[in-house]
Amino acid sequence: MNNQVLYDMIFKRKSFHLFRNIGNEIISDDELIDINNQFNKLKPLNENIKVKMKIVKEGTTCKRGQEYCILFYSEKKDNYLQNIGYIGEQLDLYLVSKNIGTLWFGIGKVKEEQLDGLDYVIMIAIAKIDSEDKFRKDMFKSKRKELSEIWSGDNYLDIADIARFAPSACNTQPWRIESSPKELKVYRYRKEGKRGIMPKNMVIYYNQIDIGIFLYILELCLEKNKIKFNKEIFFENDHEAENNLTAIYKIN
Predict the structure, then answer these.
(1) What is the pTM of this model?
(2) According to the 3-state scheme, what is the secondary structure of the chain?
(3) 117 & 15 share domain
(4) Which of 106, 171, 213, 228 has the highest Cβ tally under 10 A?
């Protein structure tokens, strides 16, 4: 996968909450094979966590007009949710580059809760879209928190202004970043409030996936701007804390 192409897809991607008026094209057998092949090339956040995916037509409670659902399975190890978000967002953007619409669907249930000993985590619903015009035309019209809410410090604001458009469950945007010229500290921020249709007891679960999605988008933005970095990933000792340090990016 070409990182420049994936970066461009940040601007095109939108969540298809309903796959309606998308034309009559379908995802071909060759495209299904390609999706499976691409999954095996994805870069994990933690390469020591076993993950698998399965593409299904049936066997889920997702009823959004999709053609298929991509089911993600994982070992339950430290940061496994962040890892799935990080991996899944790569596939999400790749699919958009092929005019396949996507929806991270968190509240769905599946018939097959385990795959080869790995536990089901989350799914992405997908369908072929017949025109690029049905994707997002102006990302900056999307509703997002102001930069001042998520980003402290006056460093890398051009990157912040793109990365903040990362998708998240019910648009909760659970990230806070402390910036300095040589460092970015990324926190998963938790505060009682907006959660849409998310059950209260699942907010932390989905927001850990969200922060993995955000990390991948952030890295694409850094690479686009030719900013080299080393990163350190941290494990949350207290999921209930208001701020959980997720990652530190040391700018080279």
Answers:
(1) 0.96
(2) CCHHHHHHHHHHCCECCCCCCCCCCCCCHHHHHHHHHHHCCCCCCCCCCCEEEEEECCCECCCCCCCEEEEEEECCCCCHHHHHHHHHHHHHHHHHHCCEEEEEECCCCECCCEECCEEEEEEEEEEECCCHHHCCCCHHHCCCCCHHHHEECCCCHHHHHHHCCCCCHHHCCCEEEEEECCEEEEEEECCCCCCCCCCHHHHHHHHHHHHHHHHHHHHHHHHHCCCCEEEEECCCCCCCCCEEEEEEEEEC
(3) yes
(4) 213
Residue 38 belongs to a domain with what CATH number? 3.40.109.10
Considering the domain architecture, whether residues 125 and 43 belong to the same structural domain is answered as yes
Q: Assess whether 32 and 95 both reside in one domain.
A: yes
- Tell me the residue range of the domain where 86 lies: 3-134
Q: Domain ends where: 112, 134, 156?
A: 134
pLDDT digits (tens, 9 = 90+) for 206-231: 999 999 999 999 999 999 999 999 99
134, 162, 192 - which closes a domain: 134
Rounded average pLDDT per 10-residue block, the chain, 252 residues: 93 96 97 97 97 98 97 97 98 98 95 98 98 94 91 96 94 95 96 69 93 98 97 93 96 96
